[in-house]
Specification:
The chain has about 270 residues and is an alpha/beta fold. The protein has 8 helices and 12 strands.
Amino acid sequence: MKIIGLGNAGCKLAKAFSKFPQYESIGIDTHKDATITIKKRNSHEEYDAHFPNLKRKLRFSQEDILVITAGTGQISGGILRLLEQLQNNRLTVLYIQSDLSLISEVQKRQDKIVKNVLQEYARSGILEMLYLIDDLCVQRSIGEMSILGYYDTINQAIVNTLHMVNVFKHSEPIIGNFIIPAEISRIATLGVANLDDESDYENWFYPLTNVRDMVYYYGINEEDLKNDGTLFRKITNFVKSKAINDVSVSYGIYQTTYEQKYCYCIQYS
């Protein structure tokens, strides 16, 4: 999969994916350290009107591409022009929302515009999927963090979660009842769950509304799969408890080599 980061936040997340061999990362920004450097513009609107033609540098066709951006950056004004140049591929967007209480009114407006347009692109089928991520929600799922490396820690949580979801999607579960989400369910968010603390079971990375489908991916080591006689009951009881208000819920249990048990999850709207 090709990972294309647009802007500072997008470039850093794209680079974080490169630790896994399954991904090739490309960063587009105005600074010289980016893979592709473009001219700095003065506003969100200028990036939309004057985004450069990058087709010679992005010679992709029929590829799986994940584009990452944050709407608060002015450069995100060029996201639609970038997607147009990549239209012959299978496109997914990972959209990062900053803490709205700590940004300017201009940035809030930019965030709203980009997020709303991307949701329309997802609903119309131009995007395979739009993942919405709120930095503040990710922070809450992690807990206390030091100032040094703060955003690196958040980025690693996002990257690791999406990577493991991708791995599980392409693996065969030991047991499960996967239900294919509806074709129109193209807006989603990620989450993690704590298998050892049911009082704080889920931590979603965005407050998604109108949820229609939920999927839980459980990664459990061989010893627990063999010896924990309560595990299957806990998982199935929890999954059943989420199947309310016409929400379809499915799950898969996978064997891993990790000592700790993991649960990654997706909500679709």
